[in-house]
Amino acid sequence: MKITAITGGIGSGKSVVSEMLRTMGYPVYDCDSRAKVIMDGDEEIKQAIATQICGDAIDADGNIDRKRLGAVVFADAILLELLNSIVHGAVRADFRRWAESAGVERVWLETALLYESRLDRLVDDVWEVSAPEELKIKRVMRRNSMTAEQVKARIEAQQRTVHPEKHPCVNLIVNDDVQPLLPQVLTQRCLYRHKWVTQGALYWCHMPELCIDSMALAIYSAVGELISIDRQSTPSSVVPRILGCISTMS
Q1: Helices in 116-189 by DSSP H: which ranges?
Q2: Cα–Cα distance for residue pair 83/49, rounded to 1 Å
Q3: 242 CB-near residues (< 8 Å, 6+ apart)
Q4: What rounded mean pLDDT belongs to the chain?
Q5: Residues of 157-195 as b/e, b for ≥16 C-beta within 10 angstroms?
Q6: CB–CB of 15/29 below 8 Å?
Q7: CB-based contact 2:124 (threshold 8 Å)
Q8: In what order do the strands lie in the sheet with 125-130?
Q9: Cα separation of 219 and 156, whole Å?
Q10: Other Cβ atoms within 10 Å of 61 Cβ, number
């Protein structure tokens, strides 16, 4: 089984890449959402949080107050590292069980903490999603209703734990709202190199070495709409059409 990690800092847009893969029918393990489920259901983890990190991060009903916990750990690098050490082992074990039960040749995992969690030791390659810092801040402010200062604190906390040695096989995906994202995902995901000429510009994309006649024509038509003069405006009906065609071909 081949395992690919999708990683990147907060606000980089790695979840958008993951959702594209899911829409195409590929299995993606979301470390963040699974960690929350694991933490909520594991009394030992909650006890460790209460005794080692922050007593009032666990409320009277035994639930985790994530807002309070986040405020504490993102202001203290030592406590953040401690929290990660408490949770990461359980997430690695959960991922192994999920991957073994997937029954497919390739799976993806999405994580912001690839090296800190030691998940980098389990993966064959890495898709690193990047975006300009100002754009990341705007995205997180809009998504999480946070102030710019709060977002910057989280970005700085992640940057403090950057691992000095990266995985030997890292592929960059730029999600800057300028470069089209979907062609980059397809280029990383597929095996067969196919050339598209659309509206006078040359685009390279990997396509599976399968039947690409009628399907390729359908994708070609949709891409013609997607890559417009204003690349930041994407017709809402176009992406589902492209993904639907690719899913049928896979």
Answers
A1: 133-144, 148-160, 181-189
A2: 7
A3: 182, 219, 222, 223, 226
A4: 79
A5: bbeeeeeeeebeeeeebbbeeeeebbbbbbbbbbeeebe
A6: no
A7: yes
A8: 28-30, 106-110, 2-7, 125-130, 170-174
A9: 41
A10: 5
**Which candidate, 18, 11, 3, 20, places its Cα nearest to that of 244?**
20
Per-residue pLDDT tens over the stretch 185-228: 888 876 323 333 333 333 434 444 333 334 444 454 444 444 43
| Two tokens, residue 249 | 């071909």
For residue range 23-35, list pLDDT tens digits in order. 989 999 999 999 9
From CA 131, how far away is CA 138, in angstroms rounded? 11
Residue with the two structure tokens 């993806």 = 108
Q: In angstroms, how far is CA 106 from the centroid of its own chain?
A: 16
Strand stretches in 19-124, DSSP E: 28-30, 106-110
Measured over the CA atoms of residue 112, residue 184, residue 130 and residue 235, the dihedral's sign is negative
How far is it, in rounded angstroms, from Cα 30 to Cα 50?
Answer: 25
Report the amino acid identity of residue 148: A
Maximum C-alpha span of the chain: 63
Of 249, 240, 235, nearest in space to 194 by CA: 249
Sign of CA dihedral 70, 76, 81, 82: negative
Q: Give tens-digit pLDDT for 144-187.
A: 888 999 899 888 877 766 666 789 999 999 999 999 998 888 88
* Global confidence as pTM: 0.71
Burial class (CB in 10 A: 0-12, 13-18, 19+), 240: exposed
